[in-house]
Automatic annotation (TrEMBL):
The keyword ATP-binding applies. Belongs to the bacterial diacylglycerol kinase family. The chain crosses the membrane at residues 45-63, 70-89, 109-129. Substrate binds at residues 40-44, 79, 108. PROSITE patterns: DAGK_PROKAR. A divalent metal cation binds at residues 38, 86. Mn(2+), Zn(2+), Cd(2+) and Co(2+) support activity to lesser extents. The active site is at residue 79. This is Diacylglycerol kinase.
Length: 130
């Protein structure tokens, strides 16, 4: 009686053309749905609404509003990467680990930097208007 090693599942065939675009869109929407379950992301969405509303109310230019939107998208991307890091670290290192903690801390620091960039830009725009 021989015991064979299990074969890893085969990767699906690579999609091409529009099928690839539609699949990538589905994956992105699934990522957004997963990110929406994070309290930190929902807080950052609220912060973004406040910043955009404040800029619009103070008469910021369309360019300033567009730049703020870009910074908010950068914040969402940083939060997504931070969440991905946390998920992977929890998967590969369920026990307490100094390196795992440092990886999570670095992701959190990246998000904090982008939050500060958003706040700094908004404050600079408002200061230039007022």
């Amino acid at each position: 009686m021989s015991v064979e090693a299990p074969h890893p599942p085969l990767a699906p065939a690579k999609l091409r053309g529009l099928a690839h675009v539609f699949a990538a869109t589905r994956y992105s929407l699934a990522g957004l749905a997963r990110l929406a379950s994070e309290a930190a992301f929902r807080h950052e969405i609220a912060l973004g609404a406040v910043l955009l509303g404040t800029l619009a109310a103070t008469g910021a230019s369309r360019v300033d509003l567009l730049i703020q939107c870009g910074l908010l998208l950068l914040l969402a991307a940083a939060e997504a990467l931070n969440t991905a890091i946390e998920l992977i670290v929890d998967l590969v290192s369920p026990e307490v680990s100094v390196l795992a903690g440092q990886a999570k801390d670095l992701g959190s620091f990246a998000v904090s930097c982008v939050i500060l960039a958003n706040l700094g830009f908004a404050v600079a725009c408002i200061a230039a208007i007022v």
